[in-house]
Amino acid sequence: MNEKTDLKNLTLPALEQFLQGQGKERFRANQIFKWIYQHDAGTFEEMTNISKDLRKELAETACISNLKTEAIEVGSDGTRKYLFNLGDGLAVESVLIPIEGRNTVCISSQVGCAMACEFCLTGTFKLTRNLTTAEIVNQIMAIRHDVRESGEEIRNVVMMGMGEPLHNLDNVIPAIQIMIDGNGLQLSNRRVTVSTCGLVPEMERLGREIPNVNLAVSLNATTDELRDRIMPVNRRYPLKELLKACKEFPLPGRRKVTFEYVMLGGINDSLEDAKRLLRLISDIPNKVNLIPFNEHEGCDFKAPTQAAIDAFHSYLIDRHVTVITRDSRGGDISAACGQLKGRLDTKSIA
Ligand code: SAH
Predict the structure, then answer these.
(1) Of the listed 93, 135, 164, 260, which one is catalytic?
(2) For residue 339, what are the contacts with CB-CB under 8 A and spacing of at least 6?
(3) Which of 202, 203, 236, 345 has a 20 to 30 A CA-CA distance from 77?
(4) Residue 79 domain flag
């Protein structure tokens, strides 16, 4: 018997094709899409504006997946970390960050990561596998299910969890298409951000295929020498090439590239670094996200001092750069940047 098609792996045009391939009317795709993404339907039974016969046939060839929530940890600042069971013994983490009623969800794109950035916890686990499109959108949907219970919605999605989204573009692109589809999750494309360590050809592909999505680039160093050391991807795509790709990324109107900069105490947090950073990004519409390093076991880097953070921040602000220094939200539950590890505690599996 053939395996059933998980409809959550399909964009709207792909769903139309799927239906057409089964000799069904294409316009049903819109209805089904709405049931799945707007009404959270988990079965075909619920789709009451579709004929009983079609529902029955669909149930034979297709299914609608969801993720099992294995654990939720709530931080003192309201941040919630979700551990999702992927059904094959693996797990991923996602984080809900409620900032003044504007719920932001930070989602994962892979189990583990192949990029091996020296300071990142996920990188130490190597890549186990890519997440499917369904698994990517299901993280948002599972969390949305929860926030909707208190009458809220999810406003922003950032792909800054586990994994390198541009290393899994074949699944990430359809997932973003589902997120921004008017019949899908209905997120505005200006509220979806893809964060990359700097895979240049994939940045170009993303820009071609979804030109309006926000781009965040984890710069983290201002010289090739240091970046080569802490982010191996730089040996393939050095700063010059990376910044050229940022400059050419098709952002609409007045939107800016976000440069993330993890501040590592005594390594990249000097004023010289701030000066070089400014020089590097000054001809790209930019904003800067300073992220004080979150310390974790087995990693020797240290968090920067508050004085170093303040001086770096002020240097940029004084030169009219938009800077946000991230408070380490979710720090007490290890849900802060770079702390996700997605370990499924075998004891907790029923
Ligand atoms: N692979 C993507 C997205 C995941 S990492 C990327 O590289 O952008 C998301 C952000 O967390 C990146 O900016 C990364 O540099 C940062 N990060 C990783 N480990 C961290 C740590 N221990 N402390 C603070 N930020 C960290």
Answers:
(1) 93
(2) 121, 294, 296, 330, 331
(3) 345
(4) no
Q: Which two tokens stand for residue 194?
A: 């893809």
- Between the CA of 5 and the centroid of ligand 1 the distance, in Å, is 34
Closest alpha carbon to 167 in 119, 128, 221: 128
Kindly give the distance from the C-alpha atom of residue 259 to the centroid of ligand 1, in angstroms, as a whole number: 11
Number of domains in the chain: 2
Distance between CA atoms of residues 252 and 323, nearest Å: 20
Q: d(Cα 346, Cα 331) in Å, to the nearest integer? A: 24
Name the β-bridge partners of 132: none
> Domain residues for 11?
5-63
Indicate if 188 and 227 belong to the same structural domain. yes
- The token pair at 58 is 């669909």
Q: Which residue has the tokens 């008017």?
A: 182
Q: Are residues 206 and 309 in the same domain?
A: yes
Q: Indicate the residue type of 252.
A: P
The verdict on pTM exceeding 0.90 is: yes
Nearest CA to ligand 1 atom 15: 218
Catalytic residue among 106, 113, 246, 337: 337
Per-residue pLDDT of the chain (350 residues; tens, 9 = 90+): 568 999 999 999 999 999 999 999 999 999 999 999 999 999 999 999 999 999 999 999 999 999 999 999 999 888 999 999 999 999 999 999 997 778 999 999 999 999 999 999 988 889 999 999 999 999 999 999 999 998 999 999 999 999 999 999 999 999 999 999 999 999 999 999 999 999 999 999 999 999 889 999 999 999 999 999 999 999 999 999 999 999 999 988 889 999 999 999 999 999 999 999 999 999 999 999 999 999 988 899 999 999 999 999 999 999 999 999 987 777 777 777 777 777 776 444 33
What φ, ψ does residue 35 adopt, rounded to 5°?
-60, -45
- The answer to the question of residue 286 being in a domain is yes
Task: Examine the residue annotation and report whether 337 is marked as an active-site residue of this protein.
Answer: yes
CATH of the domain at 53: 1.10.150.530
Task: Give domain status of residue 171, yes or no.
Answer: yes
Give CA–CA dist 25/319, Å, rounded: 58
Asked whether residue 50 falls in the same domain as residue 142, the answer is: no
Annotated active-site residue 120? The verdict is no
Tell me: do 142 and 291 sit in the same domain.
Answer: yes
